[in-house]
Amino acid sequence: MVIKTIRDILEEHPAFKSFDDDALDLISGCGTNEHFAAGSMILREGDDASKVHILRKGDAAIEIAAPGTGPLIVETLHAGDVVDWSWLVPPRRAMSDARAVTEVSAISLDANCVLGKCDEHPNLGYQMFKLWLPHLAERVRNGRMQLLDLYGANAG
Amino acid sequence: MRDSAEPHTAIADPMLPIAMRVSEAWRELDDVVSLRLVTKDGAPFAFAPGQFNMLYAFGVGEAAISISGDPARTGELLHTIRDVGAVSGALTRLKAGDEVGVRGPFGSSWPVDSEHDRHLLFVAGGLGLAPLRPAIYRALATRHRFASITLIMGARSPRDLLYPYQLAGWTASHALRLNITVDHAGPEWTGSVGVVTTEFARALAGIDPAKVSAYLCGPEIMMRFGAMGLADMGVSTERMWLSMERSMKCAIGLCGHCQFGPDFVCKDGPVFRHDEIARRLTLKEI
Questions:
Q1: Domain co-membership, B246 together with B221
Q2: What is the rounded CA–CA span in Å between residue A56 and residue A10?
Q3: Which of A19, A57, A146, B221 has its CA 20 to 30 A from that of B199?
């Protein structure tokens, strides 16, 4: 049985396919493997956003608690998706809950480690920028679509 | 009114409704009802998947409603109607035994009969599954002709999913691959939450996008962004079809109410090939 290193896993992950060898070497040092049982919390609103989780397997629900109605799922994430953006944005505090809907395997990157290496290696920072920005833009676009309430009775 | 038992296929006088009887009416959602209609003379009523009828609620008015039943079952017509106004509201209040006027069928159809060895992708949003369902029935009836059949279904919430019994049946029988996503849900929901475009990558995983034919029906914004997303993934814009909705009155391209650029949706549509209307979809003026 071949045991894969974090670098192997990152190299195979679609989110990192554009990374060159140097960038993969640098970022691998910040990563660990994490597993979450179905129903367990990956992060909670208000927590320090000290990690970024990139899903390898399984589905995760982004939830926002609403008084009186319980948590509402506003987005479901699948393999290849990044769970949260709060680690990039001061004050780096999780803005929503993330719960494992199924058993989840994720690469967990230490946010301080990643940001520190990006400061030291601008090329890595630029590759990270190119990795995250399309995901972020897509999530913003999708969020706008959901706001339109497309399927409501008065929607066109 | 027709007085023979000949098939109601050719429209002898497209402005003259025939009287049909509601044989069954049932509620699909809080504001959505399905009607099963039969001809009074027992004659079959043939239609092509994607076509619509003008339903006349006597004393109230007419509305264009897509045909949502199985085209192989010519002995009945199924229509699914959302109560959004005076006419549609009157139609949703019809009961078994009531009569309704029917003109049709009108319009273009999903080209499912001309597809061979393709991966069929149906993308439905909200009530958009109703006009798509006849094409799904037809595809499933000739399943051997297709490489795969996938339905991506979007809805406001799990309780707003149209035809949940049908979705469950298709899933249980493995008749097609089904991806459901909703705009928001409670914690009990284990399916996806997000817009339909977020399902494309998983639905088309391992499929050559050049071999995909996509049929989209739902809110126009959903279809616009959906077609854009599929094109970005490599699906040919000449292999995507959309069902457009405009206010239709005469249904034969004379009155101009449903004009959509150089086309009339009632006569030239409602099903259009994407590349023929893509530019118009972004024009705010139409």
A1: yes
A2: 10
A3: A19
Q: What percent of chain A has pLDDT over 90?
A: 55
State the total domains in chain A.
1
* B2: pLDDT strictly greater than 80: no
Q: Do the domain assignments include residue A152?
A: no
Domain boundary residue, one of B106, B124, B158: B106
DSSP character for B116?
-
Residues of A with CB under 8 A from a CB of B: 59, 61-63, 69-76, 78, 80, 99, 101-102, 142, 145-146, 148-156
The arithmetic mean of pLDDT across residues B216-221, rounded, is 94
Q: Which CATH number is B273's domain given?
A: 3.40.50.80
Which of B198, B228, B232, B244 best probes binding to A when mutated, by most A CB atoms within 10 angstroms?
A: B198
Give this complex's ipTM: 0.84
Helix, strand, or coil (residue B279):
helix
What single letter denotes the amino acid at residue A132? W
pLDDT band at B4 (very low <50, low <70, confident <90, very high): very low
Same domain flag for B141 and B251 = yes
Alpha helices in B179-219 (DSSP H): 200-203
A74·B193 Cβ contact <8 A: yes
With CB atoms and an 8 Å threshold, state whether A151 touches B191: no
Q: What is the pTM (predicted TM-score) of this model?
A: 0.90
Residue B117 tokens read as 């060895």
- Name the minimum distance, in Å, from the CA of B168 to any CA of chain A: 20
Express each pLDDT in A28-51 by its tens digit: 999 999 999 999 999 999 999 999
